[in-house]
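Appendix B: complex inputs.
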Amino acid sequence: MTPRETWQRIAANKIALASIIFLALLILAAAFVPMLLPFGYEQQLPDSRLLPPGGKHILGTDDLGRDILTRVLVGARISLMVAVSVECVVVFLGLTVGLIAGYRGGWIDSLLMRVTDVLLAFPDVLLAILLLGTLGATSSRPETSAMLVVISLGVTGWPPLARLVRGQVVALRQREFVDAARSIGSGHGRILLHHILPNLVSPIIVAVTVDAAGVILAEATLSYLGIGVQRPMPSWGRMINDALDYYKSEPRLVIVPATMLSLTVIALNFLGDGLRDALDPRKTRR
Amino acid sequence: MSTTPPMLDVRHLVKQFPKRGGMFGKREVFTAVDDVSFQVNRGTTLALVGESGSGKSTVGMMLLGLLETTSGDVLYEGRPVIGLRGPERLALRRKLQVVFQDPFASLNARMTVAELVMEGMRVHKMYANDAERRARAQELLGQVGMPAHALDRYPHEFSGGQRQRIAIARALSVEPEFLVLDEPTSALDVSVQSQVLNLLRRLQRERGLTYLFVTHNLAVVDYLADEVCVMEKGKIIERGMVEDVFDHPQHVTTQRLLAAVPKVEM
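Resulting structure:
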Protein backbone atom coordinates (compact mmCIF):
# COMPACT_ATOMS: atom_id res chain seq x y z
CA MET A 1 0.00 0.00 0.00
CA THR A 2 1.33 3.41 -0.89
CA PRO A 3 1.29 6.31 1.60
CA ARG A 4 -1.21 8.05 -0.62
CA GLU A 5 -3.71 5.19 -0.37
CA THR A 6 -3.22 5.10 3.38
CA TRP A 7 -3.95 8.79 3.61
CA GLN A 8 -7.08 8.42 1.48
CA ARG A 9 -8.31 5.68 3.78
CA ILE A 10 -7.73 7.77 6.91
CA ALA A 11 -9.38 10.80 5.34
CA ALA A 12 -12.43 8.66 4.56
CA ASN A 13 -12.77 7.85 8.28
CA LYS A 14 -14.52 10.91 9.75
CA ILE A 15 -13.70 10.24 13.39
CA ALA A 16 -10.02 9.65 12.63
CA LEU A 17 -9.94 12.77 10.45
CA ALA A 18 -11.55 14.84 13.23
CA SER A 19 -8.95 13.49 15.64
CA ILE A 20 -6.12 14.47 13.31
CA ILE A 21 -7.56 17.97 12.93
CA PHE A 22 -7.99 18.34 16.69
CA LEU A 23 -4.45 17.16 17.41
CA ALA A 24 -3.01 19.36 14.67
CA LEU A 25 -4.82 22.42 16.04
CA LEU A 26 -3.68 21.52 19.56
CA ILE A 27 -0.06 21.26 18.43
CA LEU A 28 -0.23 24.57 16.54
CA ALA A 29 -1.99 26.32 19.43
CA ALA A 30 0.48 24.93 21.96
CA ALA A 31 3.39 26.03 19.80
CA PHE A 32 2.30 29.55 18.84
CA VAL A 33 -0.66 30.91 20.81
CA PRO A 34 1.21 31.44 24.14
CA MET A 35 3.60 33.76 22.28
CA LEU A 36 0.68 35.84 21.08
CA LEU A 37 -0.92 36.12 24.50
CA PRO A 38 0.32 38.98 26.67
CA PHE A 39 0.86 36.82 29.78
CA GLY A 40 3.65 34.51 30.92
CA TYR A 41 2.56 31.09 32.14
CA GLU A 42 4.15 31.80 35.52
CA GLN A 43 3.25 35.48 35.62
CA GLN A 44 1.14 36.19 38.72
CA LEU A 45 -1.21 39.17 38.73
CA PRO A 46 -2.17 39.81 42.38
CA ASP A 47 -5.03 42.12 41.34
CA SER A 48 -6.61 39.59 38.96
CA ARG A 49 -7.08 36.45 41.07
CA LEU A 50 -9.83 33.97 40.18
CA LEU A 51 -11.21 36.16 37.43
CA PRO A 52 -14.12 34.60 35.51
CA PRO A 53 -13.71 33.94 31.79
CA GLY A 54 -13.99 36.92 29.46
CA GLY A 55 -12.16 40.15 28.71
CA LYS A 56 -8.37 40.01 28.61
CA HIS A 57 -8.36 36.56 30.21
CA ILE A 58 -10.37 34.41 27.83
CA LEU A 59 -10.59 31.48 30.25
CA GLY A 60 -10.13 33.57 33.37
CA THR A 61 -7.34 33.35 35.95
CA ASP A 62 -6.42 30.97 38.73
CA ASP A 63 -5.94 31.52 42.46
CA LEU A 64 -2.55 33.16 41.92
CA GLY A 65 -3.80 35.43 39.15
CA ARG A 66 -2.25 33.44 36.29
CA ASP A 67 -3.90 33.35 32.86
CA ILE A 68 -5.57 29.93 32.46
CA LEU A 69 -5.54 29.86 28.64
CA THR A 70 -1.80 30.52 28.60
CA ARG A 71 -1.21 27.86 31.21
CA VAL A 72 -3.40 25.20 29.62
CA LEU A 73 -1.66 25.70 26.25
CA VAL A 74 1.82 25.66 27.76
CA GLY A 75 0.57 22.59 29.64
CA ALA A 76 -0.32 21.05 26.27
CA ARG A 77 3.26 21.69 25.20
CA ILE A 78 4.58 19.82 28.22
CA SER A 79 2.12 16.94 27.87
CA LEU A 80 2.75 16.50 24.15
CA MET A 81 6.51 16.83 24.49
CA VAL A 82 6.58 14.35 27.32
CA ALA A 83 4.41 11.96 25.27
CA VAL A 84 6.60 12.24 22.16
CA SER A 85 9.83 11.86 24.13
CA VAL A 86 8.52 8.88 26.07
CA GLU A 87 7.38 7.18 22.86
CA CYS A 88 10.86 7.71 21.38
CA VAL A 89 12.37 5.91 24.36
CA VAL A 90 9.66 3.22 24.22
CA VAL A 91 10.17 2.58 20.49
CA PHE A 92 13.94 2.49 20.86
CA LEU A 93 13.87 0.01 23.76
CA GLY A 94 10.83 -1.99 22.65
CA LEU A 95 12.03 -2.32 19.05
CA THR A 96 15.55 -3.34 20.07
CA VAL A 97 14.38 -5.94 22.57
CA GLY A 98 11.57 -7.23 20.33
CA LEU A 99 13.79 -7.49 17.23
CA ILE A 100 16.58 -9.33 19.02
CA ALA A 101 14.21 -11.68 20.84
CA GLY A 102 12.07 -12.43 17.81
CA TYR A 103 14.84 -12.75 15.25
CA ARG A 104 17.45 -14.61 17.28
CA GLY A 105 15.06 -16.85 19.19
CA GLY A 106 16.51 -19.49 21.51
CA TRP A 107 17.70 -18.67 25.02
CA ILE A 108 18.12 -14.96 24.25
CA ASP A 109 14.43 -14.83 23.35
CA SER A 110 13.47 -16.67 26.55
CA LEU A 111 15.60 -14.41 28.71
CA LEU A 112 14.37 -11.15 27.18
CA MET A 113 10.73 -12.24 27.27
CA ARG A 114 10.93 -13.30 30.94
CA VAL A 115 12.31 -9.85 31.80
CA THR A 116 9.46 -8.35 29.76
CA ASP A 117 6.91 -10.53 31.56
CA VAL A 118 8.17 -9.43 34.96
CA LEU A 119 7.91 -5.77 33.96
CA LEU A 120 4.47 -6.32 32.44
CA ALA A 121 3.23 -7.89 35.67
CA PHE A 122 4.01 -4.64 37.49
CA PRO A 123 1.76 -1.58 37.12
CA ASP A 124 3.66 0.99 35.02
CA VAL A 125 2.72 4.01 37.07
CA LEU A 126 3.70 2.30 40.32
CA LEU A 127 7.07 1.44 38.84
CA ALA A 128 7.45 4.99 37.54
CA ILE A 129 6.63 6.35 41.00
CA LEU A 130 9.25 4.06 42.50
CA LEU A 131 11.79 5.17 39.91
CA LEU A 132 10.96 8.85 40.36
CA GLY A 133 11.28 8.47 44.13
CA THR A 134 14.71 6.92 43.67
CA LEU A 135 15.81 9.54 41.17
CA GLY A 136 14.64 12.31 43.51
CA ALA A 137 12.28 14.16 41.23
CA THR A 138 10.53 16.24 43.85
CA SER A 139 13.60 18.18 44.81
CA SER A 140 14.75 19.04 41.29
CA ARG A 141 14.20 21.95 38.92
CA PRO A 142 11.07 21.93 36.70
CA GLU A 143 13.04 21.10 33.51
CA THR A 144 14.87 18.26 35.22
CA SER A 145 11.60 16.98 36.63
CA ALA A 146 10.09 16.74 33.14
CA MET A 147 13.17 14.87 31.97
CA LEU A 148 12.91 12.45 34.88
CA VAL A 149 9.24 11.84 34.06
CA VAL A 150 10.24 10.97 30.49
CA ILE A 151 12.96 8.61 31.65
CA SER A 152 10.79 6.84 34.19
CA LEU A 153 7.79 6.44 31.88
CA GLY A 154 10.02 5.42 28.97
CA VAL A 155 11.99 2.86 30.93
CA THR A 156 8.80 1.32 32.35
CA GLY A 157 6.69 1.61 29.19
CA TRP A 158 8.52 -0.51 26.59
CA PRO A 159 7.46 -4.08 27.50
CA PRO A 160 4.10 -4.13 25.63
CA LEU A 161 5.78 -2.84 22.46
CA ALA A 162 8.62 -5.36 22.81
CA ARG A 163 6.00 -8.10 23.06
CA LEU A 164 4.19 -6.81 19.99
CA VAL A 165 7.38 -6.46 17.93
CA ARG A 166 8.67 -9.86 18.99
CA GLY A 167 5.42 -11.55 17.96
CA GLN A 168 5.42 -9.81 14.59
CA VAL A 169 9.08 -10.66 13.96
CA VAL A 170 8.55 -14.33 14.81
CA ALA A 171 5.69 -14.42 12.30
CA LEU A 172 7.56 -12.42 9.63
CA ARG A 173 10.72 -14.49 9.97
CA GLN A 174 8.82 -17.56 8.77
CA ARG A 175 7.26 -15.84 5.79
CA GLU A 176 8.29 -16.99 2.35
CA PHE A 177 9.62 -13.62 1.28
CA VAL A 178 12.23 -13.84 4.05
CA ASP A 179 13.23 -17.29 2.79
CA ALA A 180 13.41 -15.80 -0.70
CA ALA A 181 15.68 -13.01 0.56
CA ARG A 182 17.90 -15.53 2.31
CA SER A 183 18.23 -17.66 -0.80
CA ILE A 184 19.16 -14.66 -2.90
CA GLY A 185 21.99 -14.11 -0.42
CA SER A 186 20.78 -11.29 1.84
CA GLY A 187 22.43 -11.20 5.26
CA HIS A 188 20.73 -10.69 8.61
CA GLY A 189 21.22 -6.93 8.54
CA ARG A 190 19.62 -6.53 5.13
CA ILE A 191 16.76 -8.86 6.01
CA LEU A 192 16.04 -6.96 9.23
CA LEU A 193 16.32 -3.55 7.59
CA HIS A 194 14.60 -4.21 4.26
CA HIS A 195 12.19 -7.05 4.94
CA ILE A 196 11.29 -7.15 8.64
CA LEU A 197 11.40 -3.49 9.68
CA PRO A 198 9.20 -2.05 6.89
CA ASN A 199 6.53 -4.59 7.82
CA LEU A 200 6.71 -3.46 11.45
CA VAL A 201 6.10 0.22 10.75
CA SER A 202 2.29 0.00 10.63
CA PRO A 203 1.75 -1.97 13.85
CA ILE A 204 4.28 0.23 15.66
CA ILE A 205 2.59 3.45 14.52
CA VAL A 206 -0.76 2.17 15.74
CA ALA A 207 0.64 0.95 19.06
CA VAL A 208 2.56 4.17 19.68
CA THR A 209 -0.46 6.37 18.94
CA VAL A 210 -2.66 4.54 21.42
CA ASP A 211 0.16 4.28 23.95
CA ALA A 212 0.79 8.04 23.77
CA ALA A 213 -2.69 8.54 25.22
CA GLY A 214 -1.70 6.35 28.16
CA VAL A 215 1.54 8.26 28.60
CA ILE A 216 -0.30 11.59 28.74
CA LEU A 217 -2.57 10.12 31.41
CA ALA A 218 0.38 8.69 33.30
CA GLU A 219 2.18 12.02 33.23
CA ALA A 220 -0.99 13.71 34.50
CA THR A 221 -1.26 11.11 37.25
CA LEU A 222 2.35 11.63 38.34
CA SER A 223 2.01 15.41 38.23
CA TYR A 224 -1.31 15.23 40.04
CA LEU A 225 0.41 13.22 42.76
CA GLY A 226 3.00 15.97 42.93
CA ILE A 227 5.96 13.86 41.81
CA GLY A 228 5.79 14.62 38.10
CA VAL A 229 6.42 17.96 36.47
CA GLN A 230 7.25 20.51 39.17
CA ARG A 231 5.88 24.02 39.79
CA PRO A 232 5.62 26.45 38.21
CA MET A 233 5.55 24.36 35.06
CA PRO A 234 1.91 23.90 34.10
CA SER A 235 1.30 20.33 33.03
CA TRP A 236 -2.38 19.37 32.91
CA GLY A 237 -2.10 17.01 35.88
CA ARG A 238 -0.22 19.70 37.80
CA MET A 239 -2.98 22.25 37.08
CA ILE A 240 -5.67 19.86 38.34
CA ASN A 241 -3.61 19.27 41.46
CA ASP A 242 -3.10 23.02 42.00
CA ALA A 243 -6.84 23.63 41.62
CA LEU A 244 -7.93 21.10 44.19
CA ASP A 245 -8.42 23.68 46.97
CA TYR A 246 -10.75 25.76 44.81
CA TYR A 247 -12.62 23.27 42.66
CA LYS A 248 -15.88 23.62 44.61
CA SER A 249 -16.15 27.36 44.11
CA GLU A 250 -14.21 27.56 40.85
CA PRO A 251 -14.82 24.24 39.04
CA ARG A 252 -13.43 25.60 35.74
CA LEU A 253 -9.92 25.45 37.27
CA VAL A 254 -10.31 21.66 37.09
CA ILE A 255 -12.65 21.46 34.13
CA VAL A 256 -10.37 23.29 31.65
CA PRO A 257 -7.25 21.13 32.03
CA ALA A 258 -9.35 17.96 32.56
CA THR A 259 -11.29 18.60 29.34
CA MET A 260 -8.10 19.16 27.38
CA LEU A 261 -6.67 15.98 28.84
CA SER A 262 -9.75 13.92 27.98
CA LEU A 263 -10.11 15.31 24.47
CA THR A 264 -6.46 14.66 23.69
CA VAL A 265 -6.58 11.11 25.04
CA ILE A 266 -9.79 10.36 23.16
CA ALA A 267 -8.41 11.85 19.94
CA LEU A 268 -5.26 9.74 20.19
CA ASN A 269 -7.31 6.60 20.78
CA PHE A 270 -9.61 7.30 17.83
CA LEU A 271 -6.64 8.12 15.63
CA GLY A 272 -5.01 4.84 16.67
CA ASP A 273 -8.14 2.91 15.73
CA GLY A 274 -8.41 4.76 12.42
CA LEU A 275 -4.75 4.05 11.62
CA ARG A 276 -5.22 0.40 12.49
CA ASP A 277 -8.04 0.14 9.97
CA ALA A 278 -6.32 2.25 7.34
CA LEU A 279 -3.02 0.38 7.52
CA ASP A 280 -4.57 -3.08 7.53
CA PRO A 281 -3.92 -4.44 4.02
CA ARG A 282 -6.67 -7.04 4.43
CA LYS A 283 -9.36 -4.40 4.68
CA THR A 284 -10.41 -3.23 1.28
CA ARG A 285 -12.03 0.07 0.52
CA ARG A 286 -15.75 0.10 0.09
CA MET B 1 22.84 -42.09 -17.10
CA SER B 2 25.49 -39.80 -18.56
CA THR B 3 29.18 -40.26 -17.86
CA THR B 4 29.86 -36.66 -16.77
CA PRO B 5 29.49 -36.11 -13.00
CA PRO B 6 26.04 -34.90 -12.02
CA MET B 7 25.55 -31.22 -11.29
CA LEU B 8 23.74 -32.00 -8.07
CA ASP B 9 24.43 -35.18 -6.16
CA VAL B 10 22.27 -35.82 -3.11
CA ARG B 11 23.41 -38.70 -0.94
CA HIS B 12 21.46 -40.29 1.91
CA LEU B 13 19.80 -37.06 2.92
CA VAL B 14 17.88 -37.22 6.22
CA LYS B 15 15.81 -34.62 8.04
CA GLN B 16 14.28 -35.26 11.43
CA PHE B 17 12.12 -32.87 13.42
CA PRO B 18 11.58 -33.16 17.18
CA LYS B 19 8.06 -34.38 17.80
CA ARG B 20 5.85 -32.49 20.16
CA GLY B 21 4.17 -34.10 23.13
CA GLY B 22 6.79 -36.73 23.84
CA MET B 23 5.84 -38.10 27.24
CA PHE B 24 8.22 -37.86 30.21
CA GLY B 25 10.71 -35.85 28.22
CA LYS B 26 11.35 -38.78 25.95
CA ARG B 27 12.75 -37.32 22.75
CA GLU B 28 10.72 -38.54 19.85
CA VAL B 29 11.52 -37.54 16.32
CA PHE B 30 9.55 -37.29 13.13
CA THR B 31 11.51 -38.25 10.05
CA ALA B 32 10.41 -35.95 7.23
CA VAL B 33 13.11 -37.00 4.78
CA ASP B 34 14.43 -40.55 5.09
CA ASP B 35 17.61 -41.52 3.28
CA VAL B 36 16.95 -39.73 0.02
CA SER B 37 19.52 -39.93 -2.79
CA PHE B 38 19.31 -38.63 -6.33
CA GLN B 39 21.35 -36.92 -9.01
CA VAL B 40 20.48 -34.11 -11.39
CA ASN B 41 22.48 -33.66 -14.60
CA ARG B 42 23.31 -30.29 -16.06
CA GLY B 43 20.64 -28.82 -18.27
CA THR B 44 18.01 -31.38 -17.28
CA THR B 45 14.97 -31.35 -15.04
CA LEU B 46 14.37 -33.75 -12.21
CA ALA B 47 10.85 -33.78 -10.82
CA LEU B 48 10.36 -34.62 -7.17
CA VAL B 49 6.79 -35.77 -6.95
CA GLY B 50 4.68 -36.66 -3.96
CA GLU B 51 1.56 -35.87 -2.03
CA SER B 52 1.66 -33.11 0.57
CA GLY B 53 3.66 -34.18 3.58
CA SER B 54 5.82 -36.56 1.58
CA GLY B 55 8.94 -34.51 2.35
CA LYS B 56 9.55 -33.25 -1.18
CA SER B 57 9.59 -29.55 -0.25
CA THR B 58 11.78 -30.26 2.78
CA VAL B 59 14.42 -31.66 0.39
CA GLY B 60 14.29 -28.43 -1.61
CA MET B 61 14.65 -26.28 1.52
CA MET B 62 17.73 -28.24 2.59
CA LEU B 63 19.38 -27.90 -0.82
CA LEU B 64 18.87 -24.15 -0.60
CA GLY B 65 20.41 -24.03 2.86
CA LEU B 66 17.16 -22.70 4.32
CA LEU B 67 16.84 -25.75 6.55
CA GLU B 68 19.60 -27.66 8.33
CA THR B 69 20.13 -31.28 7.41
CA THR B 70 20.14 -34.04 10.03
CA SER B 71 22.56 -36.18 8.04
CA GLY B 72 23.62 -36.94 4.50
CA ASP B 73 25.62 -35.12 1.86
CA VAL B 74 24.83 -32.74 -0.93
CA LEU B 75 27.45 -32.27 -3.60
CA TYR B 76 27.19 -29.41 -6.06
CA GLU B 77 29.52 -29.87 -9.02
CA GLY B 78 31.35 -32.46 -6.95
CA ARG B 79 31.89 -30.21 -3.91
CA PRO B 80 30.09 -30.63 -0.58
CA VAL B 81 27.79 -27.73 0.21
CA ILE B 82 26.35 -28.60 3.63
CA GLY B 83 27.72 -26.41 6.37
CA LEU B 84 29.23 -23.85 4.02
CA ARG B 85 29.60 -20.42 5.60
CA GLY B 86 30.48 -16.86 4.69
CA PRO B 87 31.68 -16.09 1.17
CA GLU B 88 31.47 -19.72 -0.01
CA ARG B 89 27.84 -19.97 1.08
CA LEU B 90 27.13 -16.65 -0.64
CA ALA B 91 28.79 -17.80 -3.86
CA LEU B 92 26.65 -20.96 -3.83
CA ARG B 93 23.48 -18.98 -3.20
CA ARG B 94 24.14 -17.15 -6.43
CA LYS B 95 24.29 -20.39 -8.39
CA LEU B 96 21.27 -21.99 -6.72
CA GLN B 97 18.01 -20.08 -6.77
CA VAL B 98 14.40 -20.80 -5.90
CA VAL B 99 10.89 -20.03 -7.10
CA PHE B 100 8.29 -20.59 -4.41
CA GLN B 101 4.74 -21.81 -4.72
CA ASP B 102 2.82 -18.76 -3.61
CA PRO B 103 3.90 -15.52 -5.30
CA PHE B 104 1.66 -13.59 -2.89
CA ALA B 105 3.81 -14.80 0.01
CA SER B 106 7.23 -14.83 -1.60
CA LEU B 107 7.30 -11.18 -2.70
CA ASN B 108 7.64 -8.59 0.07
CA ALA B 109 4.56 -6.40 -0.32
CA ARG B 110 6.46 -3.31 0.89
CA MET B 111 9.03 -3.35 -1.91
CA THR B 112 8.63 -2.24 -5.49
CA VAL B 113 9.26 -4.69 -8.30
CA ALA B 114 12.53 -2.87 -9.09
CA GLU B 115 13.71 -3.23 -5.49
CA LEU B 116 12.73 -6.90 -5.46
CA VAL B 117 14.57 -7.75 -8.65
CA MET B 118 17.60 -5.59 -7.80
CA GLU B 119 18.09 -6.97 -4.30
CA GLY B 120 20.19 -9.96 -5.35
CA MET B 121 22.32 -7.85 -7.70
CA ARG B 122 23.04 -5.47 -4.81
CA VAL B 123 23.90 -8.28 -2.40
CA HIS B 124 26.29 -9.84 -4.87
CA LYS B 125 27.67 -6.46 -5.96
CA MET B 126 26.80 -7.12 -9.59
CA TYR B 127 27.11 -4.20 -12.05
CA ALA B 128 28.68 -0.85 -11.24
CA ASN B 129 25.73 1.07 -9.91
CA ASP B 130 21.98 1.12 -9.35
CA ALA B 131 21.28 2.64 -12.74
CA GLU B 132 22.88 -0.34 -14.46
CA ARG B 133 21.10 -2.74 -12.11
CA ARG B 134 17.82 -1.07 -12.88
CA ALA B 135 18.45 -1.40 -16.59
CA ARG B 136 19.23 -5.07 -16.06
CA ALA B 137 16.06 -5.51 -13.99
CA GLN B 138 14.07 -3.98 -16.81
CA GLU B 139 15.71 -6.35 -19.27
CA LEU B 140 14.91 -9.36 -17.06
CA LEU B 141 11.28 -8.32 -16.70
CA GLY B 142 11.05 -8.14 -20.46
CA GLN B 143 12.48 -11.66 -20.74
CA VAL B 144 9.79 -13.05 -18.42
CA GLY B 145 7.07 -11.20 -20.32
CA MET B 146 6.39 -8.32 -17.96
CA PRO B 147 5.70 -4.78 -19.20
CA ALA B 148 8.33 -2.08 -18.65
CA HIS B 149 6.14 0.02 -16.39
CA ALA B 150 6.09 -2.81 -13.84
CA LEU B 151 9.38 -1.61 -12.31
CA ASP B 152 7.94 1.02 -10.01
CA ARG B 153 4.78 -0.84 -9.08
CA TYR B 154 4.13 -2.95 -6.02
CA PRO B 155 3.49 -6.71 -6.21
CA HIS B 156 -0.15 -6.42 -5.15
CA GLU B 157 -0.89 -4.54 -8.36
CA PHE B 158 -0.32 -7.69 -10.38
CA SER B 159 -2.12 -10.98 -10.92
CA GLY B 160 -0.83 -14.28 -9.59
CA GLY B 161 0.73 -15.25 -12.89
CA GLN B 162 2.45 -11.90 -13.26
CA ARG B 163 3.72 -12.09 -9.71
CA GLN B 164 5.19 -15.48 -10.41
CA ARG B 165 6.95 -13.96 -13.42
CA ILE B 166 8.39 -11.30 -11.12
CA ALA B 167 9.57 -14.03 -8.75
CA ILE B 168 11.22 -15.81 -11.69
CA ALA B 169 12.91 -12.56 -12.79
CA ARG B 170 14.21 -12.14 -9.26
CA ALA B 171 15.60 -15.67 -9.23
CA LEU B 172 17.30 -15.07 -12.59
CA SER B 173 18.74 -11.70 -11.51
CA VAL B 174 21.83 -13.32 -9.95
CA GLU B 175 22.52 -15.48 -13.05
CA PRO B 176 21.95 -18.86 -11.39
CA GLU B 177 22.72 -22.26 -12.93
CA PHE B 178 20.23 -24.26 -10.90
CA LEU B 179 16.64 -23.49 -9.92
CA VAL B 180 14.57 -25.20 -7.27
CA LEU B 181 10.99 -24.82 -8.47
CA ASP B 182 8.81 -25.45 -5.44
CA GLU B 183 5.31 -26.01 -6.86
CA PRO B 184 5.71 -22.89 -9.02
CA THR B 185 2.31 -23.25 -10.69
CA SER B 186 0.17 -24.80 -7.95
CA ALA B 187 -1.12 -21.48 -6.63
CA LEU B 188 -2.00 -20.20 -10.09
CA ASP B 189 -5.15 -20.36 -12.15
CA VAL B 190 -5.17 -23.26 -14.58
CA SER B 191 -5.24 -20.83 -17.49
CA VAL B 192 -1.93 -19.21 -16.51
CA GLN B 193 -0.21 -22.40 -15.34
CA SER B 194 0.76 -23.39 -18.86
CA GLN B 195 2.04 -19.89 -19.62
CA VAL B 196 4.40 -20.03 -16.65
CA LEU B 197 5.46 -23.57 -17.57
CA ASN B 198 6.18 -22.43 -21.12
CA LEU B 199 8.25 -19.58 -19.75
CA LEU B 200 10.23 -21.94 -17.50
CA ARG B 201 10.87 -24.29 -20.42
CA ARG B 202 11.99 -21.48 -22.68
CA LEU B 203 14.32 -20.07 -20.00
CA GLN B 204 15.83 -23.52 -19.49
CA ARG B 205 16.52 -23.86 -23.19
CA GLU B 206 17.95 -20.35 -23.57
CA ARG B 207 20.12 -20.37 -20.46
CA GLY B 208 20.95 -24.05 -20.07
CA LEU B 209 19.41 -24.06 -16.61
CA THR B 210 19.07 -27.13 -14.46
CA TYR B 211 15.79 -27.61 -12.59
CA LEU B 212 14.68 -29.47 -9.53
CA PHE B 213 10.93 -29.39 -9.94
CA VAL B 214 9.00 -30.10 -6.75
CA THR B 215 5.34 -30.82 -7.36
CA HIS B 216 2.33 -32.99 -6.60
CA ASN B 217 0.95 -32.55 -10.07
CA LEU B 218 2.08 -35.23 -12.51
CA ALA B 219 0.47 -33.45 -15.44
CA VAL B 220 3.11 -30.70 -15.33
CA VAL B 221 5.88 -33.25 -14.79
CA ASP B 222 5.24 -34.75 -18.19
CA TYR B 223 5.59 -31.33 -19.73
CA LEU B 224 8.78 -30.15 -18.06
CA ALA B 225 10.78 -33.00 -16.56
CA ASP B 226 13.25 -35.53 -17.93
CA GLU B 227 13.48 -37.73 -14.86
CA VAL B 228 11.13 -38.23 -11.97
CA CYS B 229 11.43 -39.38 -8.35
CA VAL B 230 8.22 -40.24 -6.52
CA MET B 231 8.32 -39.68 -2.77
CA GLU B 232 6.14 -41.05 -0.03
CA LYS B 233 6.59 -40.64 3.73
CA GLY B 234 10.06 -39.20 3.27
CA LYS B 235 11.37 -41.98 1.03
CA ILE B 236 11.83 -42.22 -2.71
CA ILE B 237 9.61 -45.11 -3.76
CA GLU B 238 9.99 -44.96 -7.50
CA ARG B 239 12.33 -43.30 -9.95
CA GLY B 240 13.14 -43.27 -13.61
CA MET B 241 12.75 -41.46 -16.88
CA VAL B 242 9.41 -39.71 -17.13
CA GLU B 243 8.17 -41.84 -20.08
CA ASP B 244 9.01 -45.09 -18.29
CA VAL B 245 7.37 -44.12 -15.04
CA PHE B 246 4.31 -42.80 -16.82
CA ASP B 247 3.96 -45.88 -19.01
CA HIS B 248 4.75 -48.50 -16.39
CA PRO B 249 4.19 -47.14 -12.90
CA GLN B 250 5.36 -49.75 -10.41
CA HIS B 251 4.10 -48.34 -7.16
CA VAL B 252 0.48 -47.89 -6.08
CA THR B 253 1.07 -44.29 -5.03
CA THR B 254 2.48 -43.47 -8.46
CA GLN B 255 -0.52 -45.13 -10.08
CA ARG B 256 -2.84 -43.11 -7.89
CA LEU B 257 -1.03 -39.85 -8.70
CA LEU B 258 -1.21 -40.71 -12.39
CA ALA B 259 -4.90 -41.49 -12.14
CA ALA B 260 -5.44 -38.00 -10.75
CA VAL B 261 -4.02 -36.43 -13.91
CA PRO B 262 -6.84 -35.07 -16.09
CA LYS B 263 -6.57 -36.46 -19.61
CA VAL B 264 -6.32 -33.29 -21.64
CA GLU B 265 -4.27 -32.87 -24.77
CA MET B 266 -2.11 -29.78 -24.44
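The mean pLDDT of chain B is 90.
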